[in-house]
Amino acid sequence: MLYLRRADERGKADFGWLESRHSFSFGHYHDPKHMGFSALRVINDDTVAPGAGFGTHGHRDMEIISYVLSGAIAHKDSMGNQFVVPAGDVQRMTAGTGVTHSEYNDSKTDPLKFLQIWIIPNQRGLEPGYEQKAIPQRGPLTPLVTPDGRDGSLTVHQEASMHRLQLPAGASFALSAEKGVGYLHLLEGDVEANGNHLSAGDGLGTLDEPLSLEAGAGGVTALWFDLPRGDS
């Protein structure tokens, strides 16, 4: 079974300083048909104006991943972390028992584009934690976040993994989720996937159906989530 989520059908928010597209229900956007996919709760495609950002706010019991597409995030949190997260870096914050943080566009002249991703953890009340790393591409599919930190990836408190998929023009590739539950989110380029043409911002969830991919003329870059059955 496939779940197709088109980019132009996502939820929208425009606050002037922030333009956001929500793959799943978030904030003022609520659609009971799109509440997440397994433990994948949020994919927000955010564009932040120069010098603007999210002031100090709190989270609990969520694994929060930031993937910077262009620009850089100035991050500060209640654990004492204060870092700049540049394009290509992956950041994971475990909210656990409670954490506050702020995220601002580090540039005063250029917009920041990044994905904010939330994964529901498999435990509540975890100790808050933070990781950040630049992970180079190694082959078509590179693990960025995994339960065990394999191959230099960040860790997440869930039986879920996030990989970066990169294919050159015309390349074919097969994707199969370990537990039969997966979600593909396109970042750049386009691809044919089981008879569906996908481009940037589109998502395709799969339940017990492997994906057969063929990259378009410009190649494709995407995130692939290998997810647990259910939401935990």
UniProtKB/TrEMBL annotation:
Family listed: Belongs to the pirin family.
Matches recorded under Gene3D superfamilies: Jelly Rolls
Residues covered by the Quercetin 2,3-dioxygenase C-terminal cupin domain: 144-227
InterPro entries: Pirin, Pirin_N_dom, Quercetinase_C, RmlC-like_jellyroll, RmlC_Cupin_sf
Domain Pirin N-terminal: 12-119
Residues annotated as signal peptide: none
A matching Pfam family: Pirin_C_2
Protein name: Pirin family protein
